[in-house]
Amino acid sequence: DAGVTQSPTHLIKTRGQQVTLRCSPKSGHDTVSWYQQALGQGPQFIFQYYEEEERQRGNFPDRFSGHQFPNYSSELNVNALLLGDSALYLCASSFWATKGGNQPQHFGDGTRLSIL
Amino acid sequence: SQQGEEDPQALSIQEGENATMNCSYKTSINNLQWYRQNSGRGLVHLILIRSNEREKHSGRLRVTLDTSKKSSSLLITASRAADTASYFCATGGAGSYQLTFGKGTKLSVIP
Q1: CB–CB of A59 and B1 under 8 A?
Q2: Does position A100 have pLDDT exceeding 60, yes or no?
Q3: Residue A68: partners with Cβ closer than 8 Å, 6 or more residues away
Q4: Who's near B93: CB < 8 A, 6+ residues apart?
Q5: How confident is the model at residue A95 (pLDDT cuts 50, 70, 90)?
Q6: Distance from CA of residue A68 to its chain's centroid?
Q7: Do residue A31 and residue B97 have CB atoms under 8 angstroms apart?
Q8: In this prediction, what percent of chain B has a pLDDT beyond 70?
Q9: In the predicted structure, residue A1 carries a pLDDT above the cut 90
Q10: Residue of A nearest to B34 (CA)
Q11: What is the biggest distance separating any 2 CA atoms in chain A, rounded to whole angstroms?
């Protein structure tokens, strides 16, 4: 049973560039959430996708956007990269039907993004 | 913004001792979850406790929840070197999938 997979594992970009991160949810899951984790901090919620639509969004600027595909996989796009965007980006998957957080979220190992 | 605050920020114990971590949060919740994160890896779910529950056990883990004080504790009994990791509490609100995490407690278990 495949868990959540993310690619790439590491990425180095320069300020002003754009980046796309990818996530495949755990088999059977239909909802994908993205989190940003700065060094030494807890993860912060970016947004969540279900049925190919953004359902919830955290306190992140419009430079952060996403997409969900019919097979439930998802992409996170960040434009006009800033030094402060350097972080571990985590993808988590779950079931929409049990909304209310009554089940755990399954996380991938993340993409380490470094901005030079 | 962070919802929860874990205490202590760092904890170092000998193998075989018990480890207790605390979490405080600010707003009403539907549930509270604890996660473990090994260095450079993703988060692994440990245990979920609902707002109408007071205590829950899973193997060597014991979690308590006091909604009147907006606080929770995680107890790891008979710790092992493999328990060395960062531990995060996360709260889930009603009608929301979003988890709001604290800053974590870094646990070191010395063999």
Answers
A1: yes
A2: no
A3: A32, A49, A50, A51, A52, A53, A74
A4: A101, B27, B28, B29, B30, B100
A5: confident
A6: 11
A7: yes
A8: 95
A9: no
A10: A104
A11: 41
Residue that the structure tokens 């929840």 belong to: B65
- Residue whose C-alpha is closest to residue A67's, from A97, A101, A34, A28: A34
Which positions in chain B touch A110 (Cβ < 8 Å)?
41-42
The phi, psi pair for A97, rounded to 5°, reads -60, -25
Task: Find the distance separating the first CA and the last CA of chain A, reported in whole Å.
Answer: 37
Tokens of B108: 């070191």
The arithmetic mean of pLDDT across residues B41-54, rounded, is 94
pLDDT band at A98 (very low <50, low <70, confident <90, very high): low
pLDDT band at A69 (very low <50, low <70, confident <90, very high): very high
> What average pLDDT does range B26-35 have in this prediction?
91
CA-based angle A42:A116:A41, to the nearest 5? 10
pLDDT category of residue B28 using cuts at 50, 70 and 90: confident
Give the integer Cα–Cα distance in Å for A9 and A111.
4
The answer to whether B21 and B83 are in contact (CB under 8 A) is no
Q: Which residue of B has its CA nearest to A56?
A: B98
Q: Can you tell me which residue has the tokens 């205590």?
A: B55
